[in-house]
Each structure stands twice: as structure tokens, then as C-alpha cells.
UniProtKB/TrEMBL annotation:
One cellular component term from this protein's GO annotations in UniProt: mitochondrion
Any one GO BP annotation for this protein: sulfide oxidation, using sulfide:quinone oxidoreductase
Organism from which the protein derives: Talaromyces rugulosus (Penicillium rugulosum)
Cited Pfam families: Pyr_redox_2
Signal peptide: none
FAD/NAD(P)-binding domain ranges (all copies): 44-158
Record-level Gene Ontology MF annotations: FAD binding; sulfide:quinone oxidoreductase activity
Protein name as annotated: FAD/NAD(P)-binding domain-containing protein
Domain of life: Eukaryota
Length: 451
């Protein structure tokens, strides 16, 4: 029995220095799994979610050469996979949402067993998941990667405003609404445009302002916007956060741009309702509210863990999958792993982060199947290509603690400066490499192509 209640040598000292600290022991409250054959509904590895993380990890596991037909199962109810980072480009009129999607089954290697179903419940003490249709799947290892969910209902009146084709209320954060964004930008000829960002976790924390910078540039080129406050259009950025971005180095540059470009900053303003042309924001503490009139509103709703994860034994107090920040293994169940948005990894939630997380998870999972110690550690690497106008991107790259970890520093480039070359990475190269290499498990992000 591999996973009887075991004592494994992993560090419990500071998460970020896990590799450097002396190993301490930790008890894993794992079940005694029944032997798994990969026959029928039992698999060596079950992966919940065939999104960015599930696709990369399933293919990197296959490429290890240690698995045969149907050893690895991917469970996902979706029929289409979307390249979500491209939705910002759709909002800027640079791509169509249709060109960013693929049928999910065409992205899965035929050696993977695909269950086109949702997972409803986890039974980690029995090494099983139950699907929406009642079927149970057994596993030796479970990888939990169902992403997070967008809570449109968290903002009163938002679902109705988004659904109204005549309203100038939109969001790049959903497939249904991302193509409404550019239409609203084109329609606005005068008035106040407000772009929001909520408090709490969201996917790609830079995207709420990327879409604003593109809209500003569009209106500037159309002669409708200038920084002097006297143009037909004026712009506000209303964010639940105290600054423009979570990483001081990039936040300082973005604040400089905001002031230079005459954008009003409404900090610690968290959108709570939309009614007609009035947006209401909660101030810190939640008691005091501020109302602002708008002519165009770009909304980023609150996001959070799926209910089936949040209410499971796998979740931490915030509802995310409770994994070790360095090894990506579950803190309680030694045969459970997580990466991507659903995980508790304390870094910005991006596809770029997954390029670094996947090889760590795969290496450690394979090590553990051979009874070896986990020797790969994730440093929190993540990246946010911040479009600051058409033709320029500030390429934020950082790790745990908001410490910059820039790929191009060896060229003497300061990545807090927006560059044209980075724009082509974001607009052309990343979407290309995503479908041609990343989802196949051969793209390592800053490490380039991997075996
Ligand atoms: C507007 C926008 C802009 C972005 N910009 C960038 C960017 O510039 N750069 C960047 O790197 N990242 C960006 N991101 C973030 C990036 O898209 C996500 O971090 C990444 O997709 C997360 O991958 P994931 O696999 O964790 O989740 P997802 O890719 O969301 O996949 C989750 C999968 O789980 C499935 N699932 C859901 N429920 C269940 C269930 N019950 N059972 C089984 N499967 C289930 C879903 O169908 C889905 O296929 C952006 C995202 C958005 C929305």
C-alpha cells in the first residue's frame, strides 16, 4: 500500500524557503486506497478540469512515458476550451472570441480517458470522485484543477445590465460578454467611462486595466479623449485595491501612466450594484457607499472557488484547494495535488503561472509514486502582460512576495517599461504557443520549449 497513513519528510518551515530548510515530518491523513488497475472506472491519475492546468499537466504526465492508455483520466463537462487571456484582445477589437476557442476533445491525446462530465463530490478518504451522472471514479492520484467561478450575481443588477444589448455595460471576463466590450467602446462618443476591479481574488489581476488602456487609446486616436480633462470622454478606474497593481514596481509605473493620461483613480471602491446609469461602490468596511454616474461601464465581477470544491474536505478556509505552496501537494491528503486558479497557491492566477507550476507538480507526483522525496519547488512565478496602449505591453513577471522575476533582465531591459516587442508576445506569440505547444505539455513559459 503506497498511501497508508504515512509520515513523509517534507518541510513545514517557511513555505517559500521549503527547499532550503531542514526537513521536518508531517502526518498525512490519507486513506488506505484499494489497488487501482486503470481498468474500468479506476485510473492511476484522475484530473478534475481540462482547462489550462488540466491540459498541460495531463500531457506532461503522458510525456513522462510512465503511463499507458487510460491510466490518466480527465474529467470536464465543457465541450469547448477557451484561450481566456485572449478575451482582453477581443475587448480591444484585436481578435474574435471564436478564433480563441477549440473543441475540448480535440485537445486531448487519445491515450487520455475523457469523461465529459462534471465532478460533483470528492471522497478523498476513499480515493474516489463522484460525477454528475452518479458514476464513481477511483484513483491513485487526484489532481484538482477546475479553475474558479465568476459570480455575476455578486453585483446587484449586473446580470440584467450585461444581458441588455442596448446598455453600455460589459465585461471581458466571460465568453458571452467579451465581444460586447469593443462594441460599447465604439459606441461611446461622449461622457464618463468607468472601468472596475473588485476586491478579492480574480483571474489575471492586470486585465481590468488592460482593457481600459486599450479603450483610452482607441478614443484618443478617434479624437474623443485627451489627458487635459476637456475632451468629450472622461475615464475613471474604480478598484477595490489601494493601488493600481499588487506588485510595487509595476504599480508605481502604472500610477505614473494613470496620472499622465488623466484617468481618475477611485481606490478602495468595490462595485456592489448597477442600476440604470448609476454604479454604487462600497468603501472599506462596507458601510459607506458612493454612487457614480456612468455612460460606459466595464465590470469585473467577483470570483471564487466552485461550490463543489469549497464545501469539500480538500478546501482550506478560503475554499481553495489546500496545497503546499512549494510542492503543490495537498496539505492533508498525500495523493491529492492542485495547480492553476483552483489551488491555494498564493500567487496571481494566470495561465503563465501554470507553465511553471505544471512541471513541479508532475515531477513531485512521479517522485512520490516511486516513494522518493519531493524535490521540485515552485517559487510562485507568474506573469501579466499589461497592455498599456495598442502596440505596447509592460511585461510584469514576479514570484511569491511580489518580487520581480523578469525573463529579459539579462538583456538589460527594465520590464516596467512598456515595449512593442512585448505587445507581439501578448497579441501573437502567446495565443499561438498556447494551442501549438502549451496545451500539449511542451511549453515551459520563461524556460522555453521543454521535452
Ligand atoms: C479576461 C481574462 C484575461 C486573462 N489574461 C491572462 C493573461 O494575460 N495571461 C495569463 O497568463 N492568464 C490570463 N488569464 C488567466 C488564465 O486564463 C487562467 O489563470 C487560467 O485559464 C487558469 O487555468 P485553470 O486550468 O486553473 O482554469 P480554467 O482554464 O478556467 O479551466 C477550468 C476547467 O475546469 C472545468 N470544470 C469546472 N467545473 C468542473 C467540474 N465540476 N468538474 C470537472 N471540471 C470542471 C471547466 O469546464 C474548465 O474547462 C486571464 C483570464 C481572463 C478571464
Amino acid at each position: 500500500m503506497i498511501w497508508n497513513t504515512v509520515t513523509l519528510a517534507v518541510s513545514t518551515a517557511g513555505r517559500r524557503s521549503i527547499a532550503a530548510t531542514p526537513a521536518a515530518s508531517r502526518k498525512f491523513a490519507t486513506a488506505s486506497p484499494s489497488p487501482v488497475s486503470s481498468a474500468g472506472r479506476d485510473h492511476k491519475v484522475v484530473i478534475v478540469g481540462g482547462g489550462s492546468a488540466g491540459l498541460v499537466i495531463s500531457h506532461q504526465l503522458l510525456r513522462s512515458g510512465k503511463f499507458v492508455q487510460d491510466d490518466i483520466a480527465v474529467v470536464d463537462p465543457a465541450t469547448l476550451h477557451h484561450y481566456q487571456p485572449g478575451w482582453t484582445l477581443v475587448g480591444g477589437g484585436l481578435k474574435t472570441k471564436e478564433e480563441l476557442q477549440r473543441p475540448l476533445n480535440t485537445l486531448l491525446d487519445s491515450k487520455l480517458k475523457f469523461y465529459n462530465e462534471a465532478v460533483n463530490t470528492f471522497s478523498p478518504d476513499n480515493n474516489q470522485v463522484t460525477l454528475g451522472n452518479g458514476e464513481k471514479l477511483g484513483y491513485q492520484h487526484l489532481i484538482v484543477a477546475p479553475g474558479i467561478t465568476i459570480d455575476y450575481g455578486s453585483i446587484d443588477g449586473l446580470p440584467e445590465a450585461l444581458a441588455d444589448p442596448n446598455s453600455l455595460v460589459s465585461s471581458i471576463y466571460g465568453y458571452e460578454t467579451c465581444d460586447k466590450v469593443f462594441r460599447t467602446v465604439e459606441k461611446l462618443k461622449e461622457g464618463t467611462a468607468i472601468f472596475t476591479q473588485p476586491t478579492g481574488l480574480i483571474k489575471c489581476a492586470g486585465a481590468p486595466q488592460k482593457v481600459m488602456w486599450l479603450a483610452l487609446d482607441y478614443w484618443k486616436k478617434a479624437g474623443l479623449y485627451s489627458a487635459n480633462g476637456k475632451s468629450p470622454i472622461n475615464i475613471g478606474f474604480a478598484t477595490g485595491l489601494p493601488g493600481m497593481f499588487g506588485v510595487p514596481k509595476y504599480s508605481a509605473k502604472l500610477e505614473e501612466l494613470r496620472k499622465e493620461r488623466g484617468v481618475e483613480g477611485y481606490f478602495q471602491h468595490d462595485l456592489v450594484s448597477v442600476s440604470g446609469n448609476t454604479a454604487t461602490f462600497a468603501l472599506p468596511g462596507g458601510k459607506e457607499k458612493v454612487k457614480k454616474e456612468f455612460d460606459l461601464l466595464h465590470v469585473v465581477p467577483k470570483m471564487g472557488p466552485h461550490a463543489f470544491v469549497k464545501t469539500s474536505a480538500l478546501a482550506n478556509e478560503t475554499g481553495l484547494v489546500d496545497v503546499d505552496a512549494a510542492t503543490l501537494r495537498h496539505n492533508k491528503y498525500a495523493n491529492v495535488w492542485s495547480a492553476g486558479d483552483a489551488s491555494s497557491l498564493p500567487t496571481a492566477k494566470t495561465a503563465a503561472a501554470i507553465t511553471s507550476q505544471a512541471p513541479i507538480l508532475v515531477r513531485n507526483l512521479l517522485q512520490s509514486t516511486e516513494g522518493k522525496s519531493l524535490d521540485a519547488t515552485y517559487d510562485g512565478y507568474t506573469s501579466c502582460p499589461l497592455l498599456t496602449e495598442y502596440g505596447k505591453v509592460l511585461l510584469a513577471e514576479f514570484k511569491y512576495g511580489g518580487e520581480p522575476k523578469e525573463t529579459f533582465s539579462w538583456l538589460g531591459i527594465d520590464q516596467a517599461t512598456p515595449y512593442r516587442a512585448f505587445y507581439h508576445l501578448k497579441k501573437d506569440f502567446f495565443p499561438w504557443v498556447y494551442y501549438n505547444s502549451m496545451v500539449k505539455g511542451t511549453w515551459g513559459g520563461p524556460k522555453g520549449w521543454i521535452q
